[in-house]
Write a structure and sequence with these properties.
Layout (H helix, E strand, L loop, with lengths): L2 E13 L5 E7 L3 E7 L18 E7 L6 E11 L8 H17 L7 H16 L4 H14 L7 H9 L3 H14 L2
Parallel strand pairs: 3-5
Antiparallel strand pairs: 1-2, 1-4, 2-3, 4-5
């Protein structure tokens, strides 16, 4: 099993066992990937405090030859984007952006422009309140990077959400919150 160091943003974490997690990442170098963080839920784990949603990390991954689930060996927190968690609309927007990236990209297919878009979006949400305009901008830029050129942000959202029922519900909830 060869190892590689990547820069990535944590998109999702799921309990795998009593002590381990499956962690979904979007990396600059390899695109979307899943890792297993063995022992991450133990109190004395080296992963303690380093595996939370929206965290930007430098990680060392041991590549599996047999599956798409790789081994997370080490994580160094680069930026926690703590400002996102200060208000509900920003957290909801960041979750929606993460969900869109996870649902619309292929595993282990590098998309550096999408990684940079996600970092820029999180930097924005860390400092400023989420707005419907920011959501439309992200959708439009993501669609453009995926090769789904559209004339308007609404068309971009339609392209992205065409078959993503869960993302549609998240988007609807987000826009309701933002328009209150």
């Amino acid at each position: 099993m060869t190892a590689e160091t990547l820069h990535a943003i944590l998109l999702r974490r799921i309990r795998f066992s009593d002590t381990s997690l499956i962690v979904s990442w979007f990396s600059q170098e390899r695109g979307k990937l899943k890792t297993v963080a063995k022992g991450a839920l133990r109190t004395n784990s080296s992963f303690a405090g380093k595996l939370d949603l929206f965290f930007q990390c430098e990680l060392t991954v041991g590549w599996s030859q047999r599956s798409e689930l790789h081994s997370l060996r080490e994580t160094v927190l680069i930026k926690p984007f703590a400002g996102i968690r200060r208000n509900y609309p920003n957290t909801l927007a960041a979750g929606y952006f993460s969900e869109l990236v996870e649902e619309t990209t292929e595993p282990e297919h590098p998309e550096a422009a999408i990684y940079e878009l996600l970092v820029r979006a999180f930097l924005y949400l860390e400092e400023k309140p989420a707005t419907a305009r920011a959501v439309h901008f992200f959708e439009h830029e993501l669609a453009k990077n995926l090769g789904l050129e559209s004339r308007t942000p609404a068309q971009a959202a339609d392209h992205l959400l065409h078959s993503l029922q869960r993302s549609r519900a998240t988007r609807a909830k987000l826009l309701i919150v933002l328009n209150q």
